[in-house]
Specification:
The chain is of the alpha/beta class. It folds into two domains: about 200 residues, 3-Layer(aba) Sandwich (Rossmann fold), CATH 3.40.50; about 140 residues, no CATH class. About 55% of the residues lie in helices and about 10% in strands. It has 20 helices and ten strands. The protein has a ten-stranded mixed sheet, with helices on both faces. α13 crosses α17, α15 crosses α16 and α15 crosses α20. The protein binds NADPH dihydro-nicotinamide-adenine-dinucleotide phosphate, (2S)-2-hydroxy-2-methyl-3-oxobutanoic acid and magnesium ion (MG) (2 copies). Its cofactor is Mg(2+). It is found in: Mitochondrion. One of its GO terms (cellular component) is mitochondrial nucleoid. It comes from Schizosaccharomyces japonicus (strain yFS275 / FY16936) (Fission yeast). This is Ketol-acid reductoisomerase, mitochondrial.
Length: about 425
């Protein structure tokens, strides 16, 4: 199995362990802060994230607390991400009129109507673009599309017909289905069309998927960093999900701009550049790690430990999942981890900082194994084998039912029912 990345960079992040390393880590961060100040970029600390809370908590380093708050200037193409400059685009770079003009001669053919097809198709349609959907006639997606207002024969067609009518072919089938349908789709990708993905999977793992696009078409991706349902809900809130964009083939010479434009058209908020390889590897690692698999494992391990030592389900669930998702994690999302630590007791803060190293060390080994398994194609192989089974949906329903039936999640159902918003009386 060929490995995409033959050499892996030494880990860019080394959590300081020894007192010496901590000292040098602090002096390094002071130097970085000084360099950061000198390059003119400034960073604002949200007004609601009052300095007094942070200063009292001693969270801000002394040098940062002394200088005026720094603001990261917006609306520029280059922004500073923790000291590394990256190119970003924002949705207000592509107002609706500009999108409509740019895509005036295009028909966006959304192939597949799962979570992403639903979100991206409806957002592009609401942006006024000419969008059609192509799925298996009479299948679950066909019925779902009709429920969302797509009309058979008008903007809803069997897959092949939609591809023939489309100028930008958005392959939003499941990754396994992209492989299975490729022999049908490939001949329909005629010169001048654009092939679009939301994941680098099929193109990068071509040894397994056999997905090799024709050489005379643009091949681009826009990968929303979140569920297709959230792609839709954030768009309806007037916001947008963050997405990465990449170009695999640029025959027209306009593929880079097209990728950014379509990322905005499908409802993205801010957009950053990647490559097909980096998108698929980071995405497969993320969903198996912190985003889904890793957090599931940590929830289960903590809940089980508490229960084995006699804590009740209500106590074990609240201390593991409910407080995390309802109170503490949202603070990380709004203001960062240091803010959340500062908002908790000094007792919690001391223990959390002390135990970070143990969890980091235990998980770093797992993440290295995971990264290797993704980069060498093993995870892609596993995914294709399982998701290509004819009864893959039924198999997942059985596995998800087993998760749902675990005590932790049955307890969770009761806890959720007790939330104020669930008790309107
Ligand atoms: N889910 C997400 O939030 C994210 C997904 N992505 C990427 O977006 C793409 C689409 O993912 P997602 O929206 O989750 O789609 P799903 O994985 O849910 O795939 C469902 C779609 O694939 C179709 N399909 C499945 N098997 C076949 C087949 N054998 N022949 C024809 N059609 C088939 C289904 O049609 P039918 O109903 O007829 O079976 C349905 O329209 C993938 O590349 C994914 O990696 C990227 C970011 C996030
Ligand atoms: C929602 C998302 O970004 C995932 C987890 O990568 C996916 O659904 O593939
Ligand atoms: Mg994914
Ligand atoms: Mg993802």
């Amino acid at each position: 199995m060929s490995t995409i990345f033959l050499k892996s960079q030494r880990s860019l992040f080394h959590y300081p362990r020894t007192q010496f390393e901590i000292m040098s880590f602090r002096s390094a961060s002071k130097l970085a802060m000084k360099a950061f100040r000198q390059n003119g970029a400034r960073r604002v600390i949200p007004a609601t994230r009052s300095m007094s809370v942070l200063a009292r908590a001693g969270v801000m380093s002394r040098s940062a607390a002394r200088v005026a708050p720094m603001v990261q200037t917006r609306g520029v193409r280059t922004m500073d991400f923790g000291g590394v400059k990256e190119t970003v685009w924002e949705r207000n770079d592509w107002p609706r009129e500009k999108l409509l003009d740019y895509f005036k001669n295009d028909t966006l053919a959304v192939i597949g109507y799962g979570s992403q097809g639903h979100g991206q198709g409806l957002n592009a349609r609401d942006n006024g673009l000419n969008v059609i959907v192509g799925v298996r006639e009479g299948g679950a997606s066909w019925k779902a599309a009709i429920e969302d207002g797509w009309v058979p024969g008008k903007n809803l067609f069997p897959m092949e017909e939609a591809i023939k009518k489309g100028t930008i072919i958005m392959d939003l089938l499941s990754d396994a289905a992209q492989t299975e349908t490729w022999p049908t789709i490939a001949p329909l990708l005629t010169k001048g069309k654009t092939l679009y993905f939301s994941h680098g999977f099929s193109v990068v793992f071509k040894d397994q998927t056999k997905v090799v696009p024709p050489k005379d078409i643009d091949v681009i991706l826009a990968a929303p960093k979140g569920s297709g349902r959230t792609v839709r809900s954030l768009f309806k809130e007037g916001r947008g999900i963050n997405s990465s964009v990449a170009v695999f083939q640029n025959v027209s010479g306009k593929a880079d701009e097209k990728a950014v434009a379509i990322a905005v058209a499908i409802g993205s908020g801010f957009i950053y550049k990647t490559t097909f390889e980096r998108e698929v590897v980071s995405d497969l690692v993320g969903e198996r790690g912190c985003l889904m698999g890793g957090i599931n494992g940590l929830f289960l391990a903590q809940y089980q430990t508490l229960r084995e030592h006699g804590h009740t389900p209500a106590e074990a669930f609240n201390e593991t999942v409910e407080e995390a998702t309802q109170s503490l994690y949202p603070l990380i999302g709004k203001y960062g981890l240091d803010y959340m630590f500062a908002a908790c007791s000094t007792t919690a803060r001391r223990g959390a900082i002390d135990w970070t190293q143990r969890f980091y060390d235990a998980n770093k080994k797992v993440l290295e194994d995971l990264y290797e398994n993704v980069a060498n194609g093993n995870e892609a192989k596993r995914s294709l084998e399982y998701n290509s089974k004819p009864n893959y949906r039924e198999l997942y329903e059985k596995e998800l039912a087993e998760i749902r039936d675990l005590e932790i999640w049955r307890a969770g159902e009761t806890v959720r029912s007790l939330r104020p918003e669930e008790n309107k009386h």
